[in-house]
From TrEMBL:
It comes from Clavibacter lycopersici. It comes from the Bacteria. This is Pilus assembly protein.
Length: 154
């Protein structure tokens, strides 16, 4: 009985769910590319729009990460970038779980850099490292718990 409760909790949290891990890695890759463009001297809004997928509408089969990036880029000028990222992250499309937390961490970093003048490229590079580490821990936890979860089903 206790094993079944563990399995239910893991499914709710998404630990080890490959799609969740891949999405976290995709967010980390985007943050790293953003850091590289900022390090090369691009303005934040310009760097974001450069990384946004082309076109105004999501494509069939497109994941949540490119769709969110496009949605934020489409709202350029309407609000600060950090506010647009946070709003898009908490919207219905990506409001659940680890991806929303990753986007909100990015929004917080953008807001802090905007208010304090902190060097954003280095901060984003470190944030990307942290997001990769979190994804790695999720994957490792899913692997480590696969046996006990499978055993609890029998």
């Amino acid at each position: 009985m206790m094993g079944r409760a563990l399995a239910v909790r893991l499914r709710i949290r998404g630990a080890g769910d490959e799609a969740v891990v891949e999405e976290a890695e995709e967010i980390a890759a985007f943050v790293r590319r953003l850091a590289v463009l900022l390090g090369a001297g691009l303005h934040l809004e310009r760097a974001w729009s450069q990384l946004a997928p082309p076109g105004g509408r999501p494509r069939r089969g497109e994941g949540q990460v490119p769709a969110l990036i496009r949605r934020v880029a489409a709202g350029a000028g309407s609000a600060p970038l950090a506010a647009r990222v946070a709003a898009a992250a908490t919207a219905a499309g990506s409001g659940a779980g680890a991806s929303a937390r990753s986007w909100c961490a990015l929004a917080a970093g953008l807001e802090v850099a905007d208010r304090t003048g902190a060097p954003l490229a280095r901060s984003l590079d470190r944030l990307a490292d942290s997001l990769v580490d979190v994804a790695r821990v999720r994957r490792d936890a899913g692997t480590a718990l696969a046996g006990p979860v499978a055993t609890s089903r029998t």
